[in-house]
Amino acid sequence: YTEADNSVVVATDSMKQTVYILAKQHAVTPPELFAATVSSHFVEKYKHIHSANVKVKVHRWTRLSVDGKPHPHSFFRDGSETRNVEATATETNGISIRSAVAGLLVLKSTGSGFHSFIRDEYTQLPEVTDRILSTDVDCGWVWNSFGSLKDVEKAVPQFDKTWDKARTITLDTFARENSPSVQNTMYKMCDQILASVPDVKSVDYSLPNKHYFEI
């Protein structure tokens, strides 16, 4: 790029067509496998490319019911929640994968509080022992590194199970716990996921407040 030399540039059109062809030739589920397949392809095909990063986002589509029966070819977008994957393949360090639940909007009308925090001359937030809690869940987990695409293929049975497990832990903990703080609730969610999936090395959460007020 610095020398305006396009002879080493893989055009974005080539990238797009490659994704379509690989999707036709290889399994696209689970998304962790497809992301690893695409990222590995670019590193293996082009000798001057030393790493490739691929992001995959899976939207929720639900089959329509017509006259009480599932319709054979019609679907609707079922909310804003997505299943996200980011895979990076490198020449020397194998494949790293981060999976995530994103855009999962949740709310509970009670069972949450926030009090006993630092108060100083800048603090206006009142202390509360019971409040509405709503957030847009972004929960991600990083897998132990994979040596090759074949290692990712061997792990395929774990990907869907872990996504279901992480989502269930998130929703169950959110609903059941009398939350002393969002931060503490996030910690408990992370701890449970790490304990239940040995092949996951780290978990992260983003739970931004969505404000709804009683009238």
Note the topology:
Elements: H1 12-25, H2 31-45, E1 51-66, E2 69-90, E3 95-108, E4 133-143, H3 149-154, H4 156-176, H5 182-196, E5 200-206
Antiparallel strand pairs: 1-2, 2-3, 3-4, 4-5
Helix pairs in contact: 4-5
Detailed description of the structure:
- The protein is an alpha+beta fold and 215 residues long.
- It is built from five helices and five strands.
- It has a five-stranded antiparallel beta sheet with strand order 1-2-3-4-5, covered by helices on one side.
- The model has no long low-confidence stretch (mean pLDDT 96).
Structural class: alpha+beta
Rounded to the nearest angstrom, the radius of gyration is: 22 Å
Q: How many distinct beta strands?
A: 5
The helix content, as a percent range, equals: 25-40%
Q: Which strand order does the major sheet show?
A: 1-2-3-4-5
Question: If helices are DSSP runs of H or I spanning 4 or more residues, what is the number of helices?
Answer: 5
Averaged pLDDT, please?
96
List its salient traits.
alpha+beta, 5-stranded antiparallel beta sheet, 33% strand
Summarize the structure.
The protein has 215 residues and is an alpha+beta fold. The chain has helices at 12-25, 31-45, 149-154, 156-176, 182-196, and strands at residues 51-66, 69-90, 95-108, 133-143, 200-206.
